[in-house]
Write a structure and sequence with these properties.
By secondary structure, the protein is mostly beta strands. The chain has one helix spanning about 170-180, and strands at about 1-5, 10-15, 20, 35, 80-90, 95-105, 120-125, 135-140, 145, 155-160.
Length: about 190
């Protein structure tokens, strides 16, 4: 059964297990939270906290093995812990939305009480294509890979067979000013 409060201020779609706030929900997934501002206003999901002297607002994306949240299995290697997806409408009639870019956390090891290795991955979709692919990864060991998985022994691993790298371009005067402020801990800095 469906339940509708105050002309779609809150709409519960029992047939599709979805919720609409400000609209009737579209049936894209089993559980869905949808906010619709067709008047051009900004849609915003706000998580707020009156901090006082401590505290913070938090959004948690939770994934676990098994089917019981009260008795979860260990999160396996490669499991997507959570994903923020940036999607758009394809147009042309019907309801078709596609992932254009996303940020996801992925388990890099089998989780337990003392081991929670996680990678953070950013994916985008190249123009005139339709599949988001991994562009950058922050690995659990602190390495960053751009265009590649980071080598375990590097802090930054960049790979491309179609693009170069531009480092900061300073004038002679800017280099002199910067060099004058360097300290021993800056040894090896490229300028």
């Amino acid at each position: 059964d469906n339940l509708n409060f105050d002309s779609n201020t809150l709409y519960l779609d029992g047939a599709n297990n979805s919720v609409g706030i400000g609209t009737v929900p579209i049936s894209l997934s089993q559980v869905q939270l949808q906010m619709d501002r067709s008047n051009g206003d900004i849609n915003m999901l706000a998580i707020t906290n009156g901090m006082g002297t401590s505290g913070y607002a938090q959004l948690t994306l939770l994934n676990y093995a098994g089917t019981d949240v009260n008795n979860p299995g260990a999160t396996p290697v490669g499991a997507v812990l959570g994903k923020i997806e940036f999607s758009g409408a394809e147009g042309g009639g019907g309801i078709t939305y596609s992932d254009g870019a996303h940020i996801q956390g992925k388990a890099s090891q089998l989780w337990n009480a003392t081991a929670k290795g996680t990678d953070l991955i950013i994916s985008t979709t190249l123009q005139n294509t339709n599949v988001a692919i991994e562009r950058m990864r922050f690995s659990s060991n602190g390495g960053i890979g751009i265009g590649t998985l980071p080598n375990i022994n590097t802090i930054l691993d960049v790979a491309s067979n179609t693009k170069g790298v531009l480092l900061p371009r300073l004038t002679d005067a800017e280099e002199t000013t910067l060099a004058g402020g360097l300290v021993a801990g800056d040894a090896g800095m490229l300028i």
